[in-house]
Amino acid sequence: MNKSDPQQLIQELIGLHATQQGALLPLLHAIQDQLGFIPPDAVGEIATGLNLSRAEVHGVITYYHFFRTTAPGKHVVQICRAEACQACGADALLALAEKTLGCAVHETNAKGSVTLEPVYCLGLCASSPAMQVDDTLHARVSADRLTKILSQLEAA
């Protein structure tokens, strides 16, 4: 697969998924896994390739919080917003992350180094509050630990 040519990559992924039953979600995940986001201008190609309407494709992309339509920062920080994490202070962690990074959820900080996203369960309910940085999980995250992690990301 050719990441240097996003349109060609998207066409290849459509070809791999087009005959699959219920192909839209697996295709969208594959595109985001490869590119980091789903380019808005790919909606028409996806719709045509899967014999769906543009509205159906757009509706799925915008319905699920997981999908991005803009390129993320160098690092993606996800803070769990599920009930167990909220009960253990995740709301305060999210507010601290927004303040520290200078951006709201679903945004990237001014340096382009970190994108902040809410996530609705990382599977670490017994070790709340939890967060994920790129592909690394962090459990029992305190305000001090969050601040340290974010400062390391911004320095990188």
Characterize the structure shown.
The protein is of the alpha+beta class and 156 residues long. The protein has two domains: 6-63, no CATH class; 75-155, Glutaredoxin (3-Layer(aba) Sandwich). It has helices at residues 6-17, 24-35, 43-50, 54-63, 83-87, 90-101, 143-155; strands at 75-80, 107-108, 114-119, 131-133, 136-138. It has a five-stranded mixed β-sheet with strand order 2-3-1-4-5. Strand 4 and strand 5 (136-138) form a beta hairpin. Helix 1 packs parallel to helix 3 (43-50), helix 3 (43-50) packs across helix 4 (54-63) and helix 6 (90-101) packs parallel to helix 7. The longest helix has 13 residues, at 143-155. The protein is elongated and about 50 Å long. It starts with 5 loop residues before the first helix and ends with a helix. The relative contact order is 0.13. The mean pLDDT is 94.
**Percent of residues in beta strands?**
5-15%
Structural class: alpha+beta
Roughly what is the average pLDDT, rounded to an integer?
94
Give the strand order of the largest sheet, numbering strands 1, 2, ... along the chain. 2-3-1-4-5
CATH structural class of the largest domain: Alpha Beta
Topology readout:
Blueprint: H1 6-17, H2 24-35, H3 43-50, H4 54-63, E1 75-80, H5 83-87, H6 90-101, E2 107-108, E3 114-119, E4 131-133, E5 136-138, H7 143-155
Parallel strand pairs: 1-3
Antiparallel strand pairs: 1-4, 2-3, 4-5
